[in-house]
Request: fold
Amino acid sequence: MKTKSFSPVGSLHPILFFAVMYAVALFFAIFICSTLFYSCNANSSHIGREEVKPLNSPVEQPSGAAAVTMAMR
Reply:
């Protein structure tokens, strides 16, 4: 008759669970902290920088009846 009904790996489940949860928490902590670090130390010249170019409006040509009237003068 078998006297031992559990395997050695079964007794390691709580330890493995906490080890995996520690690794996941460490990964997310590094990810979140590095994101905050890079956002706080970002170069302010790149944030919200938008170049405004002047509009190059072409000279409007008269159209329709105005063009005919101007051509007749």
